[in-house]
Amino acid sequence: MPATRFDERFSQPGTDATPWSETEQILTDAELYWLTTLRADGRPHITPLVGFWLDGSAYFTTGDDEQKARNLARSPLVALTAGTNTWNKGHDVVVEGTATRLTDSPSLQGAAKAFADKYGAGWTFRVEGDALSEGDRPSGLWRITPSKVLSFAKDPHSQTTYTF
After folding, report:
1. Does domain 3-163 have CATH number 1.10.3720.10?
2. Where are the domains of the chain?
3. DSSP H helical segments within 8-104, as ranges?
4. pLDDT 10s digits, 112-162
């Protein structure tokens, strides 16, 4: 369990910290995430992607020729966000952490199943060597290990930080 800190500065009176289980459920249920990686010159690269949350980590894929893969080869530091694009309803979550490429067969097999379970038959990956493939396009599997997670409730507004 992460250490939890409620931030009264950014929270409405009478609110409490969001329980970790609620924040994890938001990450589990998200259909779309936004991933931020760092380009070689330090500029951020932000892209939407599909993925899944499992056992305290986020997972996603990317082809080796994609910008985010090139960025991750230089710096594993990332931010992953999920939530809603509204002010007074919903809940936003930001995961700050380190991305690591996974190449072992059990991780790849588990990810292929997790993608199919979450997104349906349209997301059928095969394990080929150290990657997942859909059609003829191999993709690396990446795990984000969080160092900090920020949880922003909106109705009422409150902010909770979890550190690992």
Report:
1. no
2. 3-163
3. 20-29, 67-74
4. 999 999 999 777 899 999 999 988 889 999 999 999 999 999 999 999 999
